[in-house]
Amino acid sequence: MSYQQEYQSSIDDPAKFWEEKAKLINWYKFPKNILSTDEQGIERWYADGELNTCYLALDYHIENGRGEQLALIYDSPVTDQKRTYTYLELRDEVARCAGMLKHLGVEKGDRVIIYLPMVPEAAISMLACARLGAIHSVVFGGFASPELALRLDDFTPKVLLTASCGIEVNRIIEYKPLVDEAISLASHKPQNVVVLQREQAVASMHSGIDLDWATSMQQATPADCVPVLGTDLLYILYTSGTTGKPKGVVRENGGHAVAMKYSMKAIYDIEPGDVFWAASDVGWVVGHSYIVYAPLLHGCTTILYEGKPVMTPDAGAFWRVISEYKVKAIFSAPTAYRAIKKEDPEGELARQYDLSCLKTIFAAGERLDPPTYEWLRETYKLPVIDHWWQTETGWAMASNLLGIERMPAKPGSATMPVPGFNIDILDDEGQILGANEQGFIGIKLPLPPSCLTSIWGDTERFKESYLEQFPGYFSTGDGGYFDDDGYLYIMGRVDDVINVAGHRLSTGEMEEIVGKHPMVAECAVIGRSDELKGQMPMGFVVIKNMPKADNSEANTEIVKQLIQMVREEIGPVAAFKEALIVSRLPKTRSGKILRKTLRAMVDGDEYTIPSTIEDPAALDEIKALL
Ligand code: COA
Ligand code: AMP
Questions:
Q1: 506 and 474 within one domain
Q2: Confidence class of residue 552 from pLDDT cuts 50, 70 and 90?
Q3: Is the CB of 173 under 6 A from ligand 1?
Q4: What is the pTM assigned to this prediction?
Q5: Which ligand approaches the C-alpha of residue 282 most closely?
Q6: Residue located nearest, by CA, to atom 6 of ligand 2
C-alpha cells in the first residue's frame, strides 16, 4: 500500500482503520467499541477492550517462542557495567517486582512514582506497574525536589521507587536526599519508598517508610497480569506547560499498545527480533515509548544506555554501542548528534567500528537543523529521518513512513503526517492556510490512539489548553507550514515552552521562580538560539528601585542567586545560566512583553519594532547591553 492510500484510509474512516490495526495486538477481549465519546465529550479508543500491556510486552512473546531472545541490554559506561535480560529473565524480574508492589498494597488503578536513573530497574518497575494495572509516573532524574513534590501532590502515589544515586558522567547525584526533601515539601506522603542501593552511594534509610529494593524483591512472590480496559491508564507523564504547574499527560493502555506496535513497522521499519535503540532517558516520553514499550511490544531487543553521547568516554560511544549490539536503528535528539559532531566532526571515531548493522538514524525532540542533518547523512552515509512528536501524543505526528513507503527526504522537514494525524495549518482565526503559509499546527479531532484524553485530574485544563483555541482541533503548540509537495516543516513553539537539549521547559515557570526573589520587580525569560542545545534560557530582569540598567558586581551577585534558585526549584536540567539586568522590559502599550522581538534581537535576526511598543528606548537599552 502506498503512503497516500494508508494515510487517506486513516482519515476517511478512523474507526475502521484503527479496528484493523487493533488486530496487531493480542487482546484478552477484542474491543467492540473502537471509537466512542465519553461523558465529558472526549473521544476514546477501545473503551471496552481488555488487555494487559505487560503481558503483550513480555509473556506474549515467551508464549510465542521468544523466551531466550534478548529483551533488554543494559550498557552503562558510567559504572562500567553491562547486563542482559532475555524475555524470560525480564518477565521473571518484572513479575517479582509486581509482587513486591502488590505486597505494599499496590492494586489496579493505584499510583506509583518512579524516580530512578537509567538502570534496568526503571524499565522493570514501569512494566511491573503495567502488570498490576497500576499507573506509573516516571520523574526525570534531572528535576529537583520541588518538582518531585509537585508531582507527589498531584499524582498522590502509594509508593515511590528510587535509587541511592544517579551518575552524570563522573558526578554522583544522590537521589535519596532529594526524595526525602520532596516528601517533606509535599502534602501527600507515599506509604513506602523502595530504594535501590547502588555501590556508588549508600542512601540512609528511614525506618517505617523506606524499604531496601533487593530485600523486598527477594521476599516477593511473583504476580500475574491483571486485565485492564482499553481506556484504563497505563501512565501519567508530566510535561511543561506555560505555567509553573506541569501538566500530567494521561496515557491509556489500549490506544498506546496499538499505536506503539503499529509504529515500529510503519515508521521505523523494524521487525520483531531486531535491535532498536532509543538513546534517550526513561524520564522523557521518547524513553517511555521507544526504550521500554514499543520495542518490547514488537518483540525486539531494546537498549538501556546509562551514559552520554560524548564524555562517556568519548564521541564514539554511540557507535561503539551500535556495533557491539548490532543495532538496526538509532533514535536520539539532534542535540546529541550535534554534541558528537562538535567532538568528532570528521566521524573518525565512528570509523573504528563496524556499523554495517545500522540502517537508519532517527532524530526527534527538537528541530533537526539542516546543517546537522547534512552532516549526519554525509558522515555516516545513512538515511536520516527527522520526525515530529510530543509528550501529548506519545508517538510521531509526522515522519517519513519507512515501513510503508519511503519518501525522498527534504532537509528541515519532518516529511508527512503519520496516518491518523489529520493536520492543518491554521491562522489566528482558525482558518486553514495554504501551502507555504506559516501558522499554528492543529490536528483535527479525533486524535488517533495513544494521544492524551485528559490532563490528570483536570479535564477542564485539558480542554482549555488544547481544544478551545481552535474548535474541532487539538492545538499542538507548534507552528509550521506545508510546502507545495505536502511536506511539513516544524518551525518551533508558538507558546512559552522552550526546548533545551531536547528537554521541554517552561519559560513561564522560570519567570515565576525568578519573580520570587525579593529584589526582582519583574522579569522575562526567553529561549535564545544555541549551537549545541538548540535553545538556552535567557532572563531579562528588572530590579526594584533601579531606574538604570546596572550589571555591576553587586547585581551580578543577584543574577547568581537567581540562577541558583532556578536550579534548586526546577533542577539542573533547566540550564538557566544567563540573565541581564535591565531597567524595564520592552512591552506593548497593553502591557504584553515583546518576547518575539527580544528573541530576534538576542539571536541577531532581523526584527521590526511593533507600532504598539510602549517605550522604544527599552529595546535600545537591551541592544546596547548585548
Ligand atoms: N540527573 C541529574 N542531572 C542531570 C540529568 C539527570 N538524569 N540529566 C542532566 N542533568 C544535568 C546535567 O548534568 C547538567 O548539569 P550541569 O548544569 O551541572 O552541568 C544539566 O542537567 C543540563 O544537562 P544537559 O542539558 O543534558 O547538558 P549536558 O551538558 O550535561 O549534556 C548533552 C549535553 C548534549 C550530552 C546532553 O544534553 C544530551 O545527551 N542530550 C540529548 C538529550 C536527549 O536525549 N533528550 C531526550 C529527548 S529525545
Ligand atoms: P516533548 O513533549 O518533550 O517531547 O517536546 C515536544 C516538543 O518538542 C514539540 O512540541 C516540538 O516543539 C518539539 N519537537 C519535537 N520533535 C520535533 C521535531 N522533529 N522538529 C521540531 N520540533 C520538534
A1: no
A2: confident
A3: yes
A4: 0.96
A5: 1
A6: 390
